[in-house]
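CATEGORY: protein folding

GOAL: derive structure tokens
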Amino acid sequence: MKGTVDEQFNAMKAIDANIEKSIQELRQNFQATSSTIFQQKIADWQTKYNELAGKYDIFHSQLEQGERGINSGQEHSNTIATGIGNGAGSYIEGVLGGKK
């Protein structure tokens, strides 16, 4: 899922860069009321895009944090399973608070 979200967000960044370039060209070469209205609509879109980008950054950070937690739990489970498989009962007893 994370890869797909990143791909979509990167596509949005590329679109935003193209739009910004087009706006600069429009400002330089076209002066009319319709151009001003169009530029305002694009500016509104960019404002909303920047809000979304900020929220995505928070989402992405939390997603990575969750992934690290899952990986840590998995590594711990693997350690315990390895201990059981190798007859290292003392490690398990220590974790579970058994014999000392």
Remarks:
- The radius of gyration is 26 Å.
- Residues 11 and 72 are 31 Å apart (CA to CA).
- The chain has a mean pLDDT of 76.
- DSSP finds three helices and no strands in the chain.
